[in-house]
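Lecture notes, continued. The same structure-token format from the folding unit now serves as the input rather than the output. Read the line below as a description of shape only.
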């Protein structure tokens, strides 16, 4: 099952191609890290895929195959040393609308000296938003992720799941068009992780956000994603792009979901 979004290499190399419904395009991207022992580590090689606007895409692969490196390049945190990454048709190096791109890290990175609401407001401090508007939007977003009543709690008084919600709210308050997530729920227990999946999908559907997330968890990829980019390691290459065309909510106990998990397991 290949996605139509897997553009042919020749088309990918043609920088004139602008498809209005593509939010992220990764075109012939490669990355090599120089190591202290002066040997180079080729982490990613000739990566090609596209992410449709409003879709949820998983980047799935074993530990060390370059998933975080790829996400960091999409986020503009790392340059690609081969190929190009485009956001809304613009090369990442020329892209200016980074305020509409949010990144949720593996650890929640909450500021311990700030309350929940102050942590969420932090997401807006780089923007031209008045203090009262900041407070209003932070309250509204915390409410939307089920944390009304915990506005003034400090992170150390919150459970892991609640901290994840605050971190999600801090990303959503920016009203991102693109949300990038690097295994943000991997430290949660399975029940809490399932709740966070529901929160994420609800926010994504309501706001039409494009989501790209990294995971090594096949079940998480099948439950959340419209498309799964499967990477194989050393160096990281695209093994396959699989479309998950199942209705939501997807329960890991449903037959169609377990079949899809089984099919993906054979690829990873
Ligand atoms: N800045 C860096 N300098 C040198 N090597 C790096 C750097 N960042 C990552 N690497 C190496 O690149 C490889 C891929 O790392 P990356 O974190 O992208 O993989 P991953 O698939 O996200 O792994 P995990 O699931 O364990 O987080 C690893 O071998 C890692 O040690």
């Amino acid at each position: 099952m290949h996605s139509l979004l897997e553009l042919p290499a020749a088309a990918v190399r043609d920088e004139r191609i602008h498809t209005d419904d593509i939010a992220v395009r990764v075109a012939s991207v490669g990355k090599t890290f120089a190591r202290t022992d002066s040997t180079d580590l080729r982490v990613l090689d000739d990566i090609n895929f596209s992410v449709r606007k409003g879709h949820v895409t998983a980047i799935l692969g074993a530990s060390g195959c370059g998933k975080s490196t790829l996400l960091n390049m999409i986020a503009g945190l790392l340059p690609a040393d081969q190929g190009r990454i485009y956001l809304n048709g613009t090369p990442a190096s020329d892209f200016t609308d980074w305020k509409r791109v949010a990144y949720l890290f593996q650890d929640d990175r909450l500021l311990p000296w700030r309350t929940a609401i102050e942590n969420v407001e932090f997401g807006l401090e780089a923007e031209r938003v008045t203090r009262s508007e900041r407070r209003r939007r932070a309250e509204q977003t915390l409410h939307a992720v089920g944390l009304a009543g915990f506005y003034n709690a400090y992170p150390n008084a919150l459970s892991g799941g609640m901290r994840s919600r605050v971190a999600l709210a801090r990303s959503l308050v920016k009203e991102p068009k693109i949300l990038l997530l690097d295994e943000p729920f991997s430290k949660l227990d399975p029940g809490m992780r399932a709740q966070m999946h529901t929160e994420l999908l609800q926010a994504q559907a309501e706001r039409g956000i494009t989501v790209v997330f990294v995971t090594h968890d096949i079940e998480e990829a099948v439950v959340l994603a419209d498309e799964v980019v499967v990477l194989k390691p050393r160096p990281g290459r695209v093994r396959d792009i699989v479309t998950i065309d199942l209705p939501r909510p997807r329960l890991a106990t449903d037959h169609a979901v377990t079949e899809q998990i089984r099919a993906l397991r054979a690829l990873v």
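Point for the exam: The helical segments are 9-13, 67-74, 116-122, 131-144, 160-172, 190-207, 218-224, 255-265.
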